[in-house]
Design a protein that fits this description.
five-stranded parallel sheet; alpha/beta; Rossmann fold; binds (2R)-2,3-dihydroxypropanoic acid; 320 residues
Length: 320
């Protein structure tokens, strides 16, 4: 019997072809709606490899039912959707897809920063709805980005890539991270500061930290209260780091200028979410890595990880 693979989303056939040559491959039949938990339960009990996406919750209860499962490959650099300790206890390898999405995600972080600071969504919406009456001296005005101070929370690969973009905009960069990065400081001349200082001094703040027990709820009412009234907050890594209720209060009370959100506490976000009613919010549906080139590169990494493990090789990008 050939080893079997289950993929939790319908993927382009060309990306799955290398696996089909060697293994029995089954795929969930939609690329939009999430796989049903009961199906995942059934599959995990049978398959040798599981290919997941970042919105699949792979918890201990599910992992306890795993049969011959040897590898889970997650389509994303983040893997907070998988209970890593439970996978480790079961001796299951977990891999992710770092590096290939760094530049694409940094592009989107910068796009979201510019769009939020200049309130592009509001200007476009008004134009489309006939709200552009004339060129007005103070109409549609936003905040400058070039020459300002950028605060980066979470200085990993994507943080560095955002910083490279910021240098083209002549920005001073402050950063906060679990640990100091001496080499990065020397290379780019950025300054390490405590979180409170970063929030007080930065004109624009980009959150790129992973969601962990330490970072969950890291930006709440107190932290938002430290930010400048003219500051923007950009959320690019995972929802759950910023307290959305506190953010709504800060925006409605105009204690910060705006927020650009690509990630949300609960995804997919409801169209009735209070933050979506505010013109100071630029909202995106978790598309940091969403270019055709990058998504295909991520899929190639996932397919390679399965080939490696099922053929007895050590995979790249192993997280446990
Ligand atoms: C990641 O890679 O973790 C992203 O959130 C998926 O686009």
């Amino acid at each position: 019997m050939r080893p079997s693979v289950f993929i939790t989303r319908k993927l382009p056939e060309e990306m799955v072809a290398p696996l089909r040559e060697k293994f029995e491959v089954r795929m969930w039949d939609s690329d939009i709606s999430a796989v049903r938990r009961s199906v995942l339960m059934d599959e995990i009990a049978q398959v040798d490899a599981l290919w997941t996406v970042v919105s699949d919750r792979i918890d201990r209860e599910l992992l306890e039912t795993a049969g011959p499962l040897k590898v889970i490959t997650n389509m994303g650099v983040g893997f907070n959707n998988i209970d890593i300790n439970a996978a480790k206890d079961k001796g299951i390898i977990v891999t992710n897809t770092p590096d290939v999405l760094t530049e694409t995600t940094a592009d989107l972080a910068f796009a979201l920063l510019l769009a939020t600071a200049r309130r592009l969504n509001r200007a476009e919406r008004e134009l489309r709805h006939g709200g552009w009456m004339s060129w007005t001296p103070m109409g549609f005005t936003g905040m400058d980005v070039g020459g300002k101070t950028l605060g980066i929370i979470g200085m990993g690969r994507i943080g560095e890539a955002v910083m490279r973009r910021a240098s083209g905009f002549n920005m001073r960069v402050l950063y906060h991270n679990r640990s100091r990065k001496d080499q990065v400081e020397q290379k780019y001349g950025c300054e390490y500061v405590e979180l409170e200082q970063l929030l007080e001094r930065a004109d624009h703040v980009v959150v790129l930290a992973p969601l962990t027990e330490q970072t969950a709820g890291m930006i709440g009412q107190r932290e938002l209260g430290l930010m400048k009234k003219t500051a923007t907050l950009i959320s690019m890594s995972r929802g759950g780091i910023i307290d959305e209720d506190a953010l709504y209060e800060a925006l409605i009370n105009e204690t910060i200028w705006g927020a650009g959100l690509d990630v949300w506490e609960k995804e997919p976000v409801s169209k009735h979410h209070p933050l979506l009613t505010l013109p100071s919010v630029t909202a995106l549906p978790h598309i940091g890595s969403a270019t055709i080139e990058t998504r295909k590169a991520m899929m190639r990494m996932n397919a390679d990880a399965i080939l490696d493990v099922l053929e007895g090789r050590e995979p790249d990008n192993r997280v446990v």
